[in-house]
Amino acid sequence: MLDFDLAEAYGVETAQLKRQVRRNMERFEGDDFMFELTHDELSRCQIGTLNKKRGQNIKYLPFAFTELGVAMLSSVLKSSSAIRVNRGIMRAFVSLRHLTNMPNTNDRIIKIEHELELIKENMNTSLADQNDINEDTRAQLDAISTALAELQAKEPVKKERKPIGFIQPKND
């Protein structure tokens, strides 16, 4: 996110946000927290004409914050929304740590992995059985097709039939 968007979200002015970042630069070292956009990067996402109103054009290059930088920024700023965000992050971190340190968590994970392996084995067995059934069915269908072809190839035997009705044929 860009600095002016974060300033609006945290309820502070962009200049104040930038001042706090520069005062606490050691907290934002590395590109995994934030970086400053270059003129070249900025020109790719902006229209080439200047805005007519005073204060509408970007005078200083904006900072782009990563997810870690947004979290770190919430600990640096003093606004009420930044404090709320920081509390939420800390609570989420602690609850995640508690979740991973719960007794029997490793046992549960091992049990789930074992159950997953059993499910995979059962699926493979079922698929193999189904494949065998399919091969048996194919063999049976081939036998039926062969028998039908043989029946079609034979000429039917013509039997003399008795006429139906009241008139009896004459025997000569």
- Compute the number of helices: 6
- Principal-axis shape equals elongated
Which stretches are poorly predicted, pLDDT < 50 over at least 5 residues?
A: none
Strand element count: 2
SSE order? HHEHEHHH
- Tell me the distance between the termini: 111 Å
Structural class: mainly alpha
**Strand order of the main beta sheet, please?**
1-2
Count of all domains: 2
Based on CA atoms alone, the radius of gyration comes out at: 40 Å
Mean pLDDT: 81
Tell me what portion of residues adopts beta-strand conformation: under 5%
The major beta sheet can be summarized as: 2 strands, antiparallel
Helix content: 55-70%
Keywords:
single chain, 172 residues, mainly alpha, two-stranded antiparallel sheet, 2 strands, 3% strand, elongated
Task: Write structural notes for this entry.
The radius of gyration is 40 Å and the shape is elongated. It has 172 residues and is mainly alpha-helical. It has helices at 3-10, 14-23, 39-44, 67-76, 80-101, 105-153; strands spanning 34-36, 63-65. The longest helix has 49 residues, at 105-153. Helix 4 (67-76) crosses helix 5. The mean pLDDT is 81. It has two domains: 3-47 and 58-101, no CATH class; 104-141. The chain is built from six helices and two strands, in the order ααβαβααα. A two-stranded antiparallel ribbon has the order 1-2. 9% of the residues are buried. The protein is 61% helix and 3% strand.
